[in-house]
Design a protein that fits this description.
The complex is a heterodimer. Chain A is built from nine helices and 14 strands. Chain A is α/β, with parallel strands linked by helices. In chain A, the strands form two sheets. A seven-stranded mixed beta sheet of chain A has the order 3-4-2-1-5-6-7, with helices on both faces. Chain A has a seven-stranded mixed beta sheet with strand order 9-8-11-10-12-13-14, sandwiched between helices. In chain B, the strands form four sheets. In chain B, strands 5, 6, 7, 8, 9 and 10 form a six-stranded antiparallel beta sheet that branches. Chain B has a four-stranded antiparallel beta sheet with strand order 1-4-2-3. A three-stranded parallel beta sheet of chain B has the order 12-14-15, with helices on both faces. Classes of the chains: A alpha/beta, B alpha+beta.
């Protein structure tokens, strides 16, 4: 199993004629993901790399039964494109773009919740279920199938972290980029709930950073008596307060947003802490070892 | 971005939230001509925090004291920032200080309303404020907020005024695309009225494409920014200067922070957060090396890139050409891993340079070389 995305995924790319859209058609095909349709206004009837193009999401879904969408449009038109996709009934939508106004992210999140859809993003590489399907632009060579569920606020960190996990023989059920912005679709708590319910996920790895409060949701989960074992790597131990470290949400505004406060909360809750990227694979292995131990 | 108190208060007044009688001054002549009733508060207008503790807020009891305070404040710097103006306000008769804010909260997935019956400068030391998770501004419900307020705020008049002020703060946040609208302190005057004695308003920079006011505020702050920061913003690089000695050039926000932490783990300190993933080209790397080679505190440079979509062989070619032309003697350590890193290693080897296989060996190498050069 995996979360949200499996080998049955029929992917639709909104903005398929753009640079990212066209790149993704080829890239997804290489990772054995079925791309069944593209959407580009006014380009209905054309094909891109053999994929039929429609001028609306509703038409694309009706013709192709697409059930997962990757939306590659600029921030200025992103809200409209994502709302169209959600309202056309697509149950899984990834919006990887960055620079999205927070109010738009809030509206997207609310629309997804209203329609029972899952939105991944903004400011995220998307979602991958290694060996099954990919809904995003992460580099496929970093991933391998296996029993670990990975949640990450950072794209670049998730690539290298998963590359190290895969190299250490620790494959993944799914890897979800929840994104670097303050308001997101699927958040840490929701991603954890999905991994909790996935029988093949034996342990959960959380890749977080300074700023915001998502890490406390991970700590709350870890305290549950039925929680799956988890490990976490947080970055930004050396980041100063009051400065935005690349991501919109990676800024320390209060003590609770510091590396130290979050690591203490996670540690107290029983999450295995990797102090550095170097310690991630062993932290993940020890979380997995806990999962393999028969219940006393 | 954080706007000044004077700009923030103008936004509050646009929603009919009371602020003290005030005047914004830009020259000593304007200070001399100020006719506000004394005493007054004289306040530096900067976007840096902690100005009160740094002496940027003073009380003046006479016209002479006002002039002195104005003169002193315009000469001060707050975290390197010169005040853009000085705000003079009538001194308030304070019955009580409250705290009221609306702010984006990631776990709420939208706006959170925060309230404390004990506001003021030491708000962080007290118990955490009451939190009312609203989400979308249109989901604010007075009755829901009232139910939460009742155990915390015993004065029913204050309670009702706080509720109506909270709704207005949400309207300001929605209409102006703000991520934070905070009033601390929100003063209860002797007559029971609520007056915003301070304003901290953060505009969402991502909304600048449809908010003229935000776009001009960003442009104004860029004009004032240090040259290095401005050059990086224009080139689509992300730079934050830090206090250490290891110049770091990396890709992606999370990996750049991970590399900073690895440098700390190896017993040294990073000199910067510098993410070149927005422009991993000769121009981008050229600017990055130019800044780090000039910075006196930078004793050595680590380039660490993990290629996903990025082809590391292209980066290797760029670096070989750039380093051949470079005149600085600061040591440089390279680590290019990921997509096409075998080719990158070959290109670097042919140019007489080593490609480190992991972040950890690269960090250890640059830390050792910098320590060796300094001993």
């Amino acid at each position: 199993m995996s979360i949200l995305l499996d080998a049955d995924a029929r992917v639709l790319i909104v903005g398929i004629t753009g640079k990212f859209g066209t790149f993704s058609v080829k890239d997804l095909a290489q990772s054995h993901t079925k791309v069944v349709a593209g959407v580009a206004t006014g380009r209905s009837g054309q094909t891109i790399e053999g994929v039929p193009v429609f001028s609306s999401v509703a038409a694309a879904i009706e013709e192709t039964r697409a059930n997962a969408a990757l939306v590659y449009v600029p921030a200025v038109v992103a809200l409209d494109a994502v709302l169209e996709t959600i309202e056309a009934g697509c149950p899984l939508v990834a919006y990887p773009g960055d620079g999205l106004p927070v109010l738009d992210a809030m509206e997207m999140r609310a629309a997804a919740l209203d329609h029972g859809a899952h939105l991944v993003g903004p400011n995220s590489p998307g979602l991958i279920s290694p060996g099954k399907a990919k809904l995003g632009f992460m580099p496929s060579f970093c991933y391998a199938p296996g029993p670990i569920g990975v949640i990450s606020r950072s794209g670049s960190l998730s690539y290298e972290a998963c590359f190290r996990l895969s190299s250490a023989g620790l494959g993944q059920t799914s890897v979800i980029g929840i994104g670097g912005d303050p308001v997101r679709g699927v958040n840490a708590a929701e991603a954890i709930a999905l991994f909790h319910d996935d029988p093949e996920t034996r342990a959960i790895i959380y890749l977080g950073e300074i700023g915001g409060s998502e890490e406390y949701a991970v700590a709350e989960y870890a305290k549950r008596s039925d929680a799956k074992p988890s490990a976490a790597l947080l970055v930004g131990r050396t980041a100063p307060a009051g400065k935005k470290m690349g991501h919109a949400a990676a800024m320390i505004g209060s003590y609770a947003e510091t590396w130290m406060a979050k690591v203490e909360a996670l540690d107290r809750a029983g999450v295995v802490i990797a102090r550095d990227l170097d310690g991630l694979a062993s932290a993940a292995a020890s979380a997995l070892a806990r999962a393999m131990k028969p219940a006393a | 971005m954080l706007v000044t108190e004077a700009q923030g208060k103008a936004l509050l007044r646009s929603a009919a939230i009371a602020t003290p009688p005030s005047q914004e001054l830009r020259s000593l002549d304007e200070a001399r001509a100020c006719r506000l009733a004394l005493p007054v508060a004289v306040k530096a207008q900067v976007s840096a925090g902690g100005r009160g503790k740094a002496g940027g807020i003073r009380k003046a009891n006479s016209a002479a004291e006002l002039e002195t305070a104005f003169d002193a404040i315009v000469g001060m710097r707050f975290a390197g920032e010169a005040p853009s103006s000085v705000l003079v306000e009538s001194w308030l008769d304070i019955e009580r200080e409250l705290y009221l804010a609306v702010a984006i909260d990631s776990r709420v997935g939208g706006f959170n309303v925060l309230y404390s019956p004990r506001g003021g400068v030491n708000i962080e030391d007290g118990p955490p404020p009451l939190s009312y998770p609203v989400g979308l501004a249109r989901n604010f419900r007075a009755h829901a907020f009232r139910a939460l307020l009742e155990p915390v705020e015993s004065d029913p008049k204050v309670r009702e005024r706080v509720i109506s002020t909270a709704r207005r703060l949400l309207e300001i946040a929605q209409a102006n695309e703000c991520t934070t609208v905070e009033i601390n302190p929100l003063v209860v005057a002797k007559d029971g009225a609520l007056i915003a004695a301070d304003a901290k308003i953060v505009l969402d920079e991502a909304a600048a494409f449809r908010k003229g006011a935000t776009a001009s505020a960003i442009a104004a702050s860029r004009d004032k920014a240090e040259r290095d920061i401005r050059l990086c913003e224009e080139a689509n690089l992300m730079l934050v200067w830090l206090d250490g000695e290891i110049g770091l050039i990396s890709g992606g926000a999370g990996m750049t922070m991970a590399a900073m932490d690895a440098i700390d783990g190896a017993g040294a300190q990073p000199a910067c957060f510098l993410d070149v993933s927005g422009k991993p080209t000769p121009a981008g790397f050229g600017l990055a090396f130019d800044l780090l080679d000039r910075a006196p505190n930078v004793k050595g440079i680590l380039v660490s890139m993990f290629g996903g979509g990025l082809h590391t062989d292209r980066v290797a070619k760029t670096l070989v050409e750039l380093l051949a032309r470079r005149t600085s003697a600061k040591p440089v350590t390279l680590r290019l891993n990921g997509t096409r890193s075998d080719l990158a290693t070959t290109i670097l080897r042919e140019a007489g340079r080593q490609n480190h296989a992991t972040l950890e060996t690269a960090v250890a190498d640059i830390v050792k070389r910098v320590a060796g050069a300094q001993s």
